[in-house]
Design goal:
Length: 474
């Protein structure tokens, strides 16, 4: 019954965690380091979707695509490379080695912290009582002073598109794709869809994104989205927005003919369905316990991730907060603080950092220009483009911009920084200071006083803020 980290003959714990993804294992590791005796129940492998079927494998494939893209343009730097080819099977094998390495490390870390890991499906029978059923039918009952539900999510599907791993894919099947297709349709132009489209297009696949809303990356500032749309067009990615998909017909030669709402069809080798993720909440808790589940299928929690039942918390994809691993990490740590009576600061979900690893990359924290105005805020906006940044010019990656949204003060000047939005080279690594500015409610004058290293990509954020003081350099 207990295996991947350590065996245990104990059946009572300070905390029982159901789910070994980012929220669950973060709580387990953080709680164990605080001296708590913790049980972690995982039906598959610790690390969850993020490690095995999400963040890590997706970014490894994107990095392989980036290497290929770089090599193709090596002659721009005087490095002549001939006969460059892609062996996608090697890429997929390397992806698995990365996963295995990180899985081994996480398992060892849990063991070193003396977290008792149980392999099986956890079910909350009553407050503080959790049953565990393993794949071979064995069962056990654990008791705990507290229980954390961190059961994660699964890919959403749409009617008429059943994943088969050969023609129809969700993220689960796509990350094990063994052969690159010549053509592909990606249904859904959100973060995951745009990342998959980038991977395929950079590897030579002709990609069409089908998005039901009026723009791709709908949560992003419109100026940022426009940069991505132009870059995608240069790559040969076709973007169709405001479209509906009504099913598909298998083609005799293989692939699918996707039927669109306007009556047209799109013939492709594969279809990648990327329309978000559905929480795993139903069937996890006995009805008699009284943990609420919303109409959308999420566990209902308060600002501290507490359910309606004392001693039961829920975090991560199974609650209606941003489905981001780093958000789940913080939620898991906050649960431990709450359990220990340390009164954690509730997460301000409107200011969490977002990172999208398409090419060009996108990152942001806080209000977009549109959301700030919709909230009734009077704003000042500044935009600077990477085409004037020395490091970007050297790299040969000048598509993109930094956009800062600040609140207009009583004197009509730019005051508190409300949002920082970036698109361009390595911006997922540059958001840190923008995130801090937004969350510390720093003013433009305060941030403009910081010295930025030169030449660096991060200079552009500093220059953008500096320009909002009424004076600028470049």
């Amino acid at each position: 019954m207990a295996d991947t980290s350590t065996t245990s003959s104990q059946s009572h714990f300070d905390l029982i965690v159901i789910g070994g993804g980012p929220g669950g294992y973060a709580a387990a590791l953080y709680g164990a380091s605080a001296g708590l005796n913790i049980a972690l129940i995982e039906q598959d492998k610790v690390g969850g979707t993020c490690l095995h079927r999400g963040c890590i494998p997706a970014k490894e494939l994107l990095e392989s695509a980036a290497v290929y893209r770089t090599v193709r343009h090596a002659s721009d730097f005087g490095v002549n490379v001939a006969g460059v080819t892609v062996d996608w099977s090697v890429t997929v094998d390397r992806k698995q080695r990365v996963i295995d390495q990180m899985f081994t490390g996480l398992s060892s870390l849990l063991k070193s912290r003396k977290v008792s890991v149980f392999s099986g499906i956890g079910h909350l029978e009553s407050p503080g009582v959790v049953s565990v059923r393993s794949a071979d039918g064995e069962s056990a009952v654990l008791t705990g002073d507290a229980v954390l539900l961190a059961t994660g999510s699964i890919p959403r599907t749409i009617p008429g598109f059943v994943p088969d791993g050969s023609t129809i894919f969700t993220s689960d099947e796509f990350l094990d794709l063994r052969r690159l297709p010549q053509t592909a349709a990606v249904i859904g132009g959100g973060a995951i869809g745009c990342e998959f489209a980038t991977t395929l297009a950079d590897m030579g696949t002709q990609v069409t994104i089908l998005e039901g809303l009026d723009k791709i990356l709908p949560s992003c500032d419109s100026d940022i989205t426009k940069v991505v749309e132009r870059a995608f067009k240069k790559k040969g990615i076709t973007t169709k927005t405001g479209v509906t998909v009504n099913g598909y017909t298998p083609l005799a030669s293989g692939g699918a003919s996707v039927m669109l709402g306007d009556g047209s069809t799109l013939d492709v080798d594969i279809v990648v369905v990327s329309v978000g993720r559905a929480p795993i909440a139903n069937g996890v808790v006995a009805d008699s316990v009284g943990v609420g589940v919303s109409d959308r299928g999420f566990f209902e929690v308060d600002e501290n991730c507490r359910t309606a039942i004392a001693g039961v918390w829920a975090v991560g994809d199974c609650i209606a907060t941003p489905q981001l691993a780093h958000v789940a990490f913080m939620e898991g740590m906050n649960v431990i603080k709450d359990l220990l009576g340390e009164h954690p600061t509730a997460i301000d979900y409107g200011k969490v950092p977002w990172a999208i690893y398409c090419h060009p990359e996108v990152s942001f924290a806080g209000h977009s220009e549109e959301s700030a105005k919709a909230a009734g805020l009077d704003v000042v906006v500044a935009k600077h483009r990477f085409m004037g940044n020395g490091r970007a010019v050297i790299l040969g990656e000048t598509d993109g911009m930094v956009k800062v949204i600040a609140e207009k003060d009583a004197d009509g000047r730019a005051g508190r920084i409300l949002g920082v939005h970036m698109v361009g080279p390595w911006v997922t690594e540059q958001l840190g200071q923008g995130y801090l500015a937004v969350n510390w409610e720093a003013t433009v004058d305060e941030v403009a006083a910081f010295i930025q290293p030169h030449p660096s990509m991060s200079e552009l954020f500093g220059e953008t803020v500096l320009s909002m003081t009424g004076r600028s350099l470049h």
